[in-house]
Design brief:
By secondary structure, the chain is an all-alpha fold. The chain contains nine helices and no strands.
Length: 201
């Protein structure tokens, strides 16, 4: 009996129109209808996520996060053209993830060269402050120059030229995972080099 009911339910959902599914979700928060939307449109959202995030696992996770948003958003608004609206929602979610990742990476790098940034923000530096800034910039340049070639090129492109991970991969010819590894290891090596210089000074 259970399997008969399940088959009938599946048949009802499969034959429901997009408008009927959206109305049921908005009125009752019907998760089975939300699941049916995933069956119909999940692959479209995945395609958008993969286009922006360039990573299958990240794209799969992002689709799940988008569907969690749908459970909330579809209760609050009427959506006429679901596929177009889903595309925009998914794209914006991916862009927010990319911005957050870049911001986190930039903040991490700022911990390394923060002493340089703080000095550079002095609007009218004194002669002594100018000398200190120049010295710190030289320290940072020397630390970058001491990195292995792969780390050096990736660090310069990512942090100094503000390129994305994907752009760094395209410009250097390195695999995307290697680019991320070179940048992570390069940050650590830079921090260690600057710390050693500070202790020796």
């Amino acid at each position: 009996m259970f399997f008969v009911l399940a088959a009938l339910l599946h048949s009802r959902l499969a034959s429901a129109t997009e408008e009927e599914l959206l109305k049921a979700i908005r009125a009752e928060g019907d998760m089975q209808c939300l699941g049916e939307l995933y069956r119909r449109f999940g692959h479209l959202a995945y395609g958008v996520c993969l286009k922006y995030l360039k990573d299958r696992e990240l794209a799969q996770d992002a689709v799940m996060e988008v569907w969690e948003k749908l459970a909330v958003e579809l209760r609050k608004r009427e959506v006429e053209k679901f596929s177009a609206w889903l595309h925009v929602l998914t794209r914006n979610h991916c862009l927010m993830q990319l911005r957050a990742a870049k911001s986190k990476a930039t903040d991490s790098f700022s911990e390394i060269n923060g002493h340089v940034v703080e000095s550079a923000m002095v609007e009218h530096p004194t002669s002594e402050e100018g000398d200190q800034l120049e010295n710190k910039l030289q320290q940072l340049e020397a630390a970058i120059a001491s990195l292995p070639d792969e780390q050096k090129s990736c660090i310069k492109l990512f942090f100094l030229e503000k390129k994305s991970y994907q752009q760094v991969a395209e410009l250097t010819g390195y695999d995307l995972k290697k680019v991320k590894s070179y940048i992570q290891n390069g940050k650590r090596n830079l921090k260690n080099a600057l710390q050693r210089h500070h202790e020796e000074g």
